């Protein structure tokens, strides 16, 4: 697994206990971009050591989300549980070197120490009587603990946070190997990063405290230290910790429920905490060229769904019509034969949509069966006077020779002038009759998209005959 030290190697290491959440997706993106910018490697490691909570569904969701966002990893994905024997081997090497010890403390003894610390209102630190003992306890169960340094301080020159120091007296003798022989996360992550040749550890700043403990293992083993970059977490629009009400959803929900395009979500995540001047629309190629971890800000970013929607609207307008038709056809239940009219309508439809759900909703009028079911707002527009107006519109449109937008516009304007009405007053009931709604693409485009026969039939369904 080892890699050349001259090559930049980053990794994304999610725990498969749930979906790929939005913060994890940004971490993956930053790691991917940093590796691609430097011509290095980007690795994916599934940290599945929690066998109770790790699920195949969660692993599949992570892999699916990464692929959808276009974050391809180099080689196959790694699974942390495959390397337990190696983790245990390192724990025993630390034991042999005097940097770890067997601790035989019972749960009762630990609980008593914890209660004493609480009573004395001081932070709880393990004080194991076995730290400097070489006494063999036979078959008595034990854990292997790191013999953390007690003097001086540990300093990390973090690429985002700057110089961060912790007094070593604050570091605890944490467990490396449990009594059943299984490794802890803290040990496994360090061993895997070393063995995989990871040069840059880019992750959320909720891991900053872990870095000091993990660095103690790295130094005890005499390994080269990775460059750390701890990125501030994403907060809600109100500055509070990100929650579901702010948009702390899985990447799959942004795709399937909210109707976002992957390039829009990637662009948005890139700008959450990183910037390149005033550029807002950044292509993937530009992102690879421009990205550097030194331009990640220290302050937490704020999730703004409205901004993401606007960005998504831009990417929808820029997107290929056939691709968009393929994406929304399942939402409309369309057959392959029905895609062509949808593709033809797409230039008009996509001009108004901020997400794929809006796009599908805007296209629905093309495929509804007659007679249309009008919504409440549309029904309110189709009153006797407007039904009589629809009769006049029908008669005028029936005489149109070329069913194209300029000819249709001329015909509707003729009706408006003849009736002494503004164009909007004519368009409103006409839109209701043609779409069953009060919002749609431009009314002349609607007529052109529906075609002569369908348009006239829909108008006829709602109009009042002169002799009625």
TrEMBL record:
Question: Molecular function terms in GO for this entry?
Answer: glutamate-tRNA ligase activity
Keywords attached to this Swiss-Prot or TrEMBL record, sorted alphabetically, are: Aminoacyl-tRNA synthetase, ATP-binding, Cytoplasm, Ligase, Nucleotide-binding, Protein biosynthesis
Question: Motif 'HIGH' region, which positions?
Answer: 14-24
CDD domains registered for this protein in UniProt: GluRS_core (cd00808)
Reaction catalysed?
A: tRNA(Glu) + L-glutamate + ATP = L-glutamyl-tRNA(Glu) + AMP + diphosphate
Query: Aminoacyl-tRNA synthetase: present as a keyword of the record?
Result: yes
* Native source organism of the sequence: Sphingomonas telluris
Its annotated function is as follows: Catalyzes the attachment of glutamate to tRNA(Glu) in a two-step reaction: glutamate is first activated by ATP to form Glu-AMP and then transferred to the acceptor end of tRNA(Glu).
Protein location: Cytoplasm
UniProt keyword Metal-binding, yes or no: no
Can you give the residue ranges of the Glutamyl/glutaminyl-tRNA synthetase class Ib catalytic domain?
8-309
- The protein's name is Glutamate--tRNA ligase
Q: Which NCBIfam families match?
A: gltX_bact
Sites binding ATP sit at 244
Q: Domain Aminoacyl-tRNA synthetase class I anticodon-binding: where?
A: 323-461
Top-level EC class, please?
A: ligase
